[in-house]
Amino acid sequence: METNEQMKRMLREAVREEVERFFEAVEGLAEGKLEQLEEQVVKTSQQMGRSLLEGVLDSRLRTPRPAARREGSCGHCQRLVGERPKELLTLVGKVRFVRPYYQCLEVSEQDRICTHGEAPDDILWGVHERRTTPGVQREISYLCGRLTFEEAADTFCRQVPLGMSGRQALSLMRPLGAALTAQQDHQVKVLQAQAKQAQSQPCAQPAAKEIERLSIELDGVLARMRRGSVPLEQEEVQRKGDVYREIKAGAVFRAERGPRRSELAPGVYVDTPAADSMRYVARRTAKGDFAWLLYQLAVEGGLEQAQQVVVLGDGAPWIWNLVAEHFPGAVQIVDLSHAKEHVWDVAHAVFGRGTKAGTAWATHACSLLEQGQSAALVSAISALPPIAPEPGQARSIPERAVDYFTTNAARMCYPLFRAQGMHLGSGIAEAACKTIVSTRAKRSGMRWTPEGLDALLPVRTAVLNGAYDSVWKEEYAA
Ligand SMILES: [Zn+2]
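Above are the sequence and the zinc ion SMILES. Below is the predicted complex in structure-token form.
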């Protein structure tokens, strides 16, 4: 980077002035007022930062002076029309500088003057048609992966002297999300090609099985969508109100013996995720390719080196279809808390909510479930007095519960799983997305668009996976 003598002199002078202003500001300050002193130091350093940025970016301080003519990106000859101001939002606040601005001279094919104008410096510094620096975009996008957009904007503006709305935070994060999604799509294609090749080739050397148990958790999370942003189902057209769409979320981790003993299996310690092994993936269901993304995450997490793979999910058929295809041989477990919800649904439907009889029945039924007595549980449901199906349903809630507990019986052998210390359900995958996707939508009245959700999910999981800085550097900044 070019810094000439004139520029250096100007910048030294600007910094010196700020130091003088600092002395003036703290002159009246009483000794011991550290908070106020610190505040002034931060202010001064931000002001110095702005002066330095403005000085370096300002074309008037640079040599050589801008050329009078240049070739524009449209291929025409352009002439210098002056040095025009530009404002940038930066990590030290708003800065303003001037840079040379060129306009086309030539007449285009249609005999009309080309009105194209451009500032070559903007392209050079990567701020063409942008009002923010990459640093601002990097930091605000990170916060968007942790907090709601409004919270991200607020939190950011506490540290940086700028104003920003939640909407602006979202639009700054969106290009990063799109880049990460494109990268995921590319990885899926590579993985699919490798899988195809592996099918036609003899088996490679089997990997050493160094990982005792790899756990995979799957779940669906509902996001409230803006009406009109997604194609509506027929019944949604007729029904007013909110529209929900599913996101699929997955977590992969190495399971280790944890410090907590099982309450139901004496002497058994329950698994806990190994330090720093938890990795997440999430994608809007309609966008597709979730299964491959999860498979890739599992491969990165040590699928080939795992002696045993355990998959936890609720009873949703898509989960077990995915497991059959990508994780054959895995131990399949229905999340115990999900299974209990089904028991309670039956109790509420038959006995009414909050009734003594319902609570007594459900408590007993849940203990059958925990003991792995699916057949007894199915009998207990079948013995209940029959009730009518809900409107629009062919079968009643107890009838559907019978199907559910029958189909998933092998995935509910809880005593067997517990004796091996396996997780019986902890909602890890659900939790990863729930706070940021569904809770916040309810809180702020916000509704998602598919584009907003698709951008957020890869940013969110990159942050959770501790990979944010590396993906920023490798996939985006480059
Ligand atoms: Zn032109």
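The first helix runs from residue 5 to 27.
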